[in-house]
Amino acid sequence: MKGQATPYLTFDGNAQEALDFYAKAFGAEIQEVKKFGEADFPTPPEAADRIMHARFSKGDFLIMVSDSFLGQPVNIGNNVSLAVTFESDDEIQAVYDVLKEGGTTHMELQDTFWNSKYAKVQDKFGVIWNLDFPKG
Questions:
Q1: Edge-to-edge strand order for the sheet containing 81-85?
Q2: 121 touches 104 (CB < 8 A)
Q3: Distance between CA atoms of 33 and 134, rounded to whole angstroms?
Q4: I need a surface site. Which of 34, 35, 77, 120 has the fewest CB within 10 A?
Q5: What contacts 24+ positions apart, CB below 8 Å, involve 17-25?
Q6: Band of the pLDDT at 1, cuts 50, 70, 90?
Q7: What are the residue ranges of helices labelled H in 12-88?
Q8: β-pairing, 29-35 with 51-58?
């Protein structure tokens, strides 16, 4: 294996909205947006505009995104948590401010006993983010 595991987020028809939201939150670039309607296999018309695969990245930061195919349920819950490490106070603050919009803050952005600035936020799409800026 080479490198880190890449998180892959699956949505139920709102992957484009999520992709735009996360690209904004992280100041990332959206790449490789492929829709089911562009695939070389039969696709029902109602699935044509759903995202089959996309990604957004900024430097080494990469996340993949897709919609489920019709009839494949997506269970949103607390079974996925993604950890992101930041390089500055300004950076963690900016991302935290966007992710908490319409979401739930499980732990406010704060200095911690382990010498980091940290927050835990469940965004409006149900994804839980562990945001960490090590101070040492």
A1: 81-85, 128-134, 116-122, 104-111
A2: yes
A3: 33
A4: 77
A5: 18/65, 18/125, 19/51, 19/54, 19/56, 19/65, 21/98, 21/123, 21/124, 21/125, 22/56, 22/63, 22/65, 23/56, 24/98, 25/95, 25/98, 25/99
A6: very low
A7: 15-26
A8: antiparallel
pLDDT tens digits, residue range 51-103? 999 999 999 999 999 998 888 888 776 656 798 999 999 999 999 999 999 99
Distances 52 to 33, 46, 81, 86, 129 between C-alpha atoms, Å: 8, 13, 22, 29, 23
By DSSP bridging, strand 128-134 and strand 81-85 are parallel
Sheet holding 29-35, edge to edge: 8-11, 61-67, 51-58, 29-35
3-state SS assignment for residue 95: helix
Q: Which two tokens stand for residue 124?
A: 């409006």
